[in-house]
Amino acid sequence: MNPSLLQEVPHRRFNPLTREWILVSPHRTRRPWLGRVEKTAAADLPQYDPTCYLCPGNERADGARNPKYASTFVFDNDFAALLPDAPPFNFDESGLLIARGEKGISRVICFSPRHDLTIPRMAPHEIEAVIAIWIEEYQRLGAIEWVHHVQIFENRGALMGASNPHPHCQVWANESIPVVPVKEIASFQAYRDAKNSCLLCDYLKLELQLGQRVICENEAFAVVIPFWAVWPFETLLLSKRHLASMEEFSSSEAKLLADILRRITIRYDNLFETSFPYSMGFHQRPTDGQAHPEYHFHAHYLPPLLRSAIVQKFMVGYELLNNPQRDITAESAAARLRNLPEVHYLDRK
Ligand SMILES: [Zn+2]
Ligand SMILES: [Zn+2]
Ligand SMILES: [Zn+2]
Asked: How many C-alpha atoms does 264 have within 13 Å on its Cβ side?
């Protein structure tokens, strides 16, 4: 087959992690785009906001007062979606109305006392402090007997529903393994059974060899736009070593994760010269007491922006009813991100 067909004609691409398909329509990007590329005014955030419930020393919704923290700060979410004392139950009406009790813990991690300091503008040692807290929370929550999965994720920007611009992430610890991780674990396992190898080790090797979809890399990590990406500038961050969670990091790997997080998020901000919104999260080995030799640590960045700081991709119609669809190919999106500088646009002026 002529590989240039992937840039020219409608086709489907397979996601081996979830074993689902997406529709790609590259011919549509030849439609002329007459609109201008909008920029949003840089949100001029103060370093400290007296009304922010995440800033040091301020009062939170439940009346608790934040300490005057100087680095990171972690606490139980005052509006937790999950509760550790939710009662267990099994509901089943005719095999059609099925429900189960679900215990969980939701935590909030502030990255820094600074109200305005996002990951791409933090110093490497400040990001390393955040990674140390991620490892600590993953281990501490994962060690709880009934916690079988720990999800660390960040919603950045109002477009992603972040309720507060103060840079922070959440950690949700669950009794059951959620839907997407269940699919991925089954795929890792099936691949290992069939090929006696790791799905993401083999995938990363192939991507580094081809180079077409690689955005950036260091000795321990690489970031690619996956072949099967759904969101226009979706990326997958992969460890080069076959490891299952952050707790297996060497000290140099923790430093190199800080380096790669900084570099990919600077590129994102530079793309439309805006504080780039996204949901991102780490996928790590479930904490269900099994060894999970099949599991390969990775992170997904899922940004909604398409063409400018204000034009976003929506999942509607065909996509909600069938499967996702994209116009711009993973390869052309990768070329755009790869060609951007790794100096933040606000630090260049
Ligand atoms: Zn704040
Ligand atoms: Zn692997
Ligand atoms: Zn994943």
From this structure: 30
pTM (two decimals) = 0.95
CA distance 68 to 166: 15
* Ligand 2 midpoint to CA 297 (Å): 8
Task: Tell me, yes or no, if 168 is annotated catalytic.
Answer: yes
Type of residue found at 48: Y
**Of residues 234, 306, 327, 313, the one with CA closest to residue 8:** 327
Q: For each successive 10 residues of the chain (349 residues), what is the average pLDDT?
A: 89 97 88 54 83 96 93 94 94 97 97 96 97 98 98 92 90 98 98 98 98 98 98 98 98 98 98 95 97 97 91 91 95 96 91
Ligand 3 centre and the CA of 300: distance in Å? 6
**Burial label, 314 (beta-carbon count in 10 A; 0-12, 13-18, 19+):** exposed
Q: Of the residues 168, 283, 298, 300, which is catalytic?
A: 168
The secondary element (H helix, E strand) that includes residue 259 is: helix 251-271
Q: Which two tokens stand for residue 23?
A: 């529709």
pLDDT at residue number 35: 47
Say how far apart CA 140 and CA 130 lie, in whole Å.
15
CA distance 224 to 283: 16
Contact of 98 with 171, CB cutoff 8 Å: no
Fill in the amino acid letter for 348: R
